[in-house]
Amino acid sequence: MIFSSLDLAPDIQKALDVCGYTQMTPIQEQAIIPARRGKDILANAQTGTGKTAAFALPILQQMVDAPEATEASSPRALILTPTRELAEQLANTIGAYAQFLPLTVTAVYGGVKMGGQERKLKAGVDILIATPGRLLEHINQCSVNLAKVRFAVLDEADRMLDMGFIADVQSLLAQTHQSRQTLLFSATLSPTVNELAHKLLTNHQEIRVTRQNITADTVDQVMYAVEERRKIELFQTLLDEQNWYQVLVFTSTKDQADRLMTSLKNNRVDVAICHSDKSQGSRRRALADFKSAKIQVLIATEVAARGLDIQGLEYVVNYNLPYLAEDYVHRIGRTGRAGEKGHAISFVNREEERALEAIQRLTGSRIRRINKPGFEVGSRDSLIDTVEKQKRPVRSNKASQTKINLEQTAKPKAKLKPAKSKSKVGKAKPSKKKPSKDRPSKNKASKANAGGKTSGKKSGKKQ
Asked: Which residues, in sequence order, are CB contacts of 148 under 8 Å at separation 6+?
């Protein structure tokens, strides 16, 4: 099905032609028409399938059909998203769809100052894209009012639930117009997402374009069994042997990301990092440098698993498996987009075998296992023997360290006053006794300092 068959407004169709859109994806075919009719929708589609156009185009068409003047701080459409990167990406994409329309698209998110965002809101906004936390800050500052929002979208709803935004989302939607249309899009469906949909949606239509939580067929998935301590070494070996042109690496923690970056820099690999400790400007520059091929490796934590749209990215590496199996789908969804071939490589240690099983149950497929010569994982029996040998020393060390800490916190309080009193007594006693013993030395010093006059006067008086 082609976009021109939808009979969209000429200015919207013109923008799609400029963007090079001709053929619709399955999610667009099934979601655009009912959404354009004002139907609430719960849509499940994997990443990289064109979800943005699926909810943005029907909203733009309805806003064109019922035009209203742009008002300061009063958007007509609200799109909530979990991360800064995704908010920026949506603003750019939807802005391209609306480039010939008299509509203003604005994005607000954390990591940057609120002043510039506040000025944009007060200048007038039609479509507002926001992360929940920053939007609540603007509401508290009275720089935005959601009472006139008639179109609400929850993009990456499952991720917002994982990040703990559920209460914020419900609070924000409660401030919108009562007769709003709500569209909920998610790459994965879970009982929690379904429960949220029943709370927020009214007589909604459920759309599933693929089997639930399945990964893209265009992504070749493999895993390497490796000891945790040797993951950096394995990554550098594969980077050299397989000559990866560009690779996106996901770690579970910021510390792991920092250590991997340090090691790669020491080996003169062009690398950048993207996690929550970095400012939005730093994250934006890292992503821009990666897209322009100025750097070879981009390391990111879970915060960037969604919202990274990098054309032609072939390799994604899971340095660690994610805590949630659903996040694996989003991580590897950064490659193999738009029908192109991609590769997802995961490093799995013994402790991550259960997480691997959970991922395979979720996706319904087995991930091909590779044992790299020279990086073999030791047997389970040897691991148990090692743990048994180290068990007692580790426990005794922890106990002794705790006792030391307790003594360190207790000693200063208990011995603070006695220490001072002893020092005073010790100084007082020598000061009284020493004059008789040390008087000759003092007289010698005084004679040396005062000269012969002093000694003469004293000797005259005694005689």
From this structure: 71, 74, 75, 76, 177
